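INFO  loader      accepted 1 record
INFO  loader      residues=330
INFO  predictor   begin
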Amino acid sequence: MARRGEDVATFMTGKRSMYGRYLFVRLTFRVIVCAMFVLGLAWTCEKSAAAGPGPGPAQEMLPDQSAAKARQLLQQVVTALGGQAYLNVRDTQCDGRIAQFGTAGTLLGFTLFHDLWLLPDKNRVEYISKGEHTILGFLMGSDDLLITHGGAMITIFNGNQGWSLDKAGVSNEAEDVIQNFDEQLKTGMNNTLRKRLNEAGMEVRYAGTDLIDLKEAEWIEFTDSEHHEMRLGIDKYSHLPLRWIVATRNPETRERSEVITSYTQYLTVDGVKSPLSLELLRNDRKVSQTFLSNCKYNTDLDAELFTRAWLEQHAAEVTKKGYKDSKSSK
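INFO  predictor   done
INFO  writer      dumping tokens
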């Protein structure tokens, strides 16, 4: 019995010794972890202090700081788009096709186009359709302008004037269509970046960071003297535009509306970074997507190409050609 008691005592003593060593190891481990945490925290604080204060969230910046940050980014945007080559664009010629989408997001069809611009306010577009498409409806906000049963249609805007040519002949554009064109000029991204940044009443603000198309991005907000509200979302690293948002309010209902343009597939053309794909959404509903096949800049377009006289002469030539073709086919 005495021997058995000694065995039990020895076992209990060993067990207490093992438990004590376990407590010592666990305590030592905790001390090491705490020390590593404190050292890591101190290193992080030291690194942050050495790096200097960052811009911080947009809401924490003073108005002058926000404006300065925004204008600094805008200079980088212009540089990314081609610098002086981008700023010195006088005219453009682009070919491509537009995909139009219905209210349910269904694809309604494609329309080929040839687009001419003589900056800042002269535009001529020739649409070629094989069916019935609301061409100016989604571009100008007028739902009753159609190309019916296929064919070609030309629209010209020259400042506060506008005309169109279809199978019925040359006609003046409706007043609301011209007004929409004028609004698009005032709120367009390229016109804003090239001409409007330094005009009286134009305010710019840094609006913080975001994620756009899985890319780190930054936002810049614009407000002009007429209270137009625009937002530009840019790639944080390439500084190329990703989004352009124009917000408006119905003067009667005060309902807010947004038109969102997305830019992808940039290609350098004549020294200018040009997006080959543009997607248009109105209040988060996809309206159209434009695919550019080629563009040319500064080809010295003649201002006469953007007049009613040219359109009427072109209509006469088309009619004459059609009459000759019909006679020769008999």
